[in-house]
Amino acid sequence: MRGSMMDQPLLIASLIGYAARYHADTEIVSRTVEGPIHRYTYGGSYRRIAQLAHALQKLGVTPSDRIATLAWNGYRHFELYYAISGLGAVCHTINPRLFPPQIKYIVEHAEDKYIFVDLTFVPLLEAFAAELKSVKGYVVMTDAAHMPATKLPNVLCYENLIAGLPETFAWPVFDEWTASSLCYTSGTTGNPKGVLYTHRSTVLHALAINAADGALGLTARDAVLPVVPLFHVNAWGIPYAAAAAGAKLVFPGPLLDGPNLYDLLEGEKVTITAGVPTVWLGLFSHLEQAGKRLSALKRLISGGSALPLPLIDGLEEKHGVAVCHAWGMTELSPVGTTGNLKAGQENLPAAERHRLKSTQGRTVFGVEMKIVDDDGKTLPQDGKAYGELLVRGPWVTNGYYRDEAANKPAFDRDGWFRTGDVVSIDPDGWVKIVDRSKDLIKSGGEWISSIDLENAAIGHPAVAEAAAIGVPHPKWQERPLLVVVIKKDGKLDRETMLAFLQTKVAKWWLPDDVIFVKELPHTATGKILKTKLREQFKDYALKPA
Ligand code: AMP
Questions:
Q1: Which of 277, 339, 387, 401 would staple 194 via disulfide (CB 3.0–4.6 Å)?
Q2: What is the pLDDT of residue 543?
Q3: Per residue in 283-330, pLDDT tens?
Q4: How far apart are CA 285 and CA 261, in angstroms?
């Protein structure tokens, strides 16, 4: 027997429609590329989103068209999110930190029709705009006074484009499986791969992350600052979840350093913020150096790469901020786990609590997980066995956009998505990443976790960043090499580093050598580019033991 409930599609326009109706006076605050802080409300934003939708229609944008953005976190970018997908077109956020040939590849692969671009990134596009066949025009996200002299063809000014257009729009109702947004994974090998989200997946993900233990758990009393970029997995869903909750939104624009973030967090009384560990290291070192306190911030969500234990210790114990470590992927919209404690765990000694929080978090409802060995056999979730993590769920992709070659290896026979992460899962659902499958170091047939080695190294007060990679070894096939960036004014040598590690990891895990470098190569989303490091050190002759 079928039930008798309404068949109401889950559409993104309903999120902002709700916020504009019942949280019309709640603020959206942005630090702009032009400089000053901009303030308006959900009510004001909704009116401009309607104007933008009219403008897009006048430009000839129709359902399914891909409209790209190349922009920081700010109110115009937020408006584009809702106007583009509200029309049934696809909001394609591009990561400006990618190498220009990758950006060109992405625009051509997606066949973007228009590109909306922040002032900062106009020169970046100018270099190859003439070669982009699908693009009909470029809209610079600024007002007439700040329009740059540019070589971009068919260039328009955002504020001129929407000025005077009607402030209401009859949002169309369509199938919830309609594509809403497109995000390419930065990928450490090969071409970037596109993940095409639906209205349904986006709304479900927003509801899930707003659950109290879902990651954000936003309320109408919160002010949320996404440091995570709008071009990275839809800023982890925050623009949607904030609207659904009626939470105040604070966008940091281009200034993501410790002092500027601190000013915004304090000035706007931000209660929840989310971003990657690199950003939190910058913020934390500013707090330490300047002797500052965080007075309003209650929760800090960290994801994208492993969160070092000393940072959790410092933020929780010295600043009273509840740190929540989450794991996710572009392919998962992105949230798969969040590190909120279970009943009883809150009373554990601090060291034990922080150890739990330094794992990747607990599986959230909505994402099913299994771990498998090299033959695809499912392993127990007992906290000991580890293997590749496979997932499925309503906000997990079922295939990369127009990329059959990438799809074949990405799914198992039963349609589960292969994450490429090697993990263990304990009976409570706590996931611990051992490594990316490609990054594990295999020494004499036994695995060494590069992540554990890096986390141990970063615990030394003089270490700013560390990467462990496997290098060829005549006897053990591979042995770990540790590449370290020393903090400014820090002092460290090979022997001190090794002596420190000796107290943290098994003896046979100790790196065979330690190299000090000025900086490590990073991907466009801030992850250490291990492929490049491995290439750089592939002929490295390890010192005999
Ligand atoms: P992306 O699609 O760019 O978000 O990258 C996803 C990958 O980032 C995952 O497969 C993990 O390897 C890594 N990652 C994400 N979150 C975490 C985390 N909390 N700890 C360690 N690695 C993470």
A1: 401
A2: 65
A3: 998 999 999 999 999 999 999 888 888 899 999 999 999 999 999 999
A4: 12
Element (H, E) at 311: helix 309-313
DSSP assignment of 422-475: EEEE-TT-EEEEEEETTT-EEETTEEE-HHHHHHHHHTSTTEEEEEEEEEEETT
Give the largest Cα separation in the chain, rounded. Answer: 74
Instruction: Give 314-327 pLDDT, tens digit per residue.
Output: 999 999 999 999 99
* pLDDT value, residue 511: 95
How high is the pLDDT of residue 29? 98
Give per-residue pLDDT as tens, 382-413: 999 999 999 999 999 999 999 999 999 999 99
Q: How deeply is 36 buried, as exposed, middle or buried, from its count of CB atoms within 10 A (0-12, 13-18, 19+)?
A: exposed
CATH architecture label of 369-436: Roll (2.30)
Pairing of strands 477-486, 513-517: parallel
Q: Is 447 exposed, middle or buried (0-12, 13-18, 19+ CB in 10 A)?
A: middle
Please name the fold of domain 441-536. GMP Synthetase; Chain A, domain 3 (3.30.300)
The verdict on the CB of residue 95 being under 6 Å from ligand 1 is: no
Give nearest CA residue, ligand 1 atom 22: 305
Of ligand 1's listed atoms, the one at least distance from the Cα of 361 is: 19
Beta strand 114-117 pairing with 513-517: unpaired
Q: Return phi, psi of residue 419, to 5°.
A: -80, -25
Give the DSSP per-residue string, 201-222. Answer: HHHHHHHHHTSTTSS----TT-
d(CA 125, CA 517) in angstroms, rounded, equals: 32
**Under CATH, what is the fold of the domain 8-23+38-204?**
Rossmann fold (3.40.50)
Active-site residue 176, yes or no?
no
Q: Are both 8-23+38-204 and 369-436 of the same fold? A: no
Q: pTM for the complete prediction?
A: 0.90
Beta carbons within 10 angstroms of residue 376's beta carbon? 14
Q: Which of 69, 93, 178, 185 is catalytic?
A: 185
Chain mean pLDDT for the chain: 94
Other beta carbons within 10 Å of 173: 12
| Ranges of the chain whose pLDDT falls below 70 | 186-190, 543-545
The confidence score (pLDDT) of residue 104 equals 96
d(CA 163, CA 174): 28
The ranges assigned to domains in the chain are 8-23+38-204, 369-436, 441-536
C-alpha to C-alpha distances, 362 to 151, 277, 307, 429, nearest whole angstrom = 50, 18, 15, 5
How far CA 376 is from CA of 30, 70, 266, 387, 421, in Å, comes to 47, 40, 49, 9, 14
Which residue, judged by its Cα, is nearest atom 5 of ligand 1?
Answer: 329
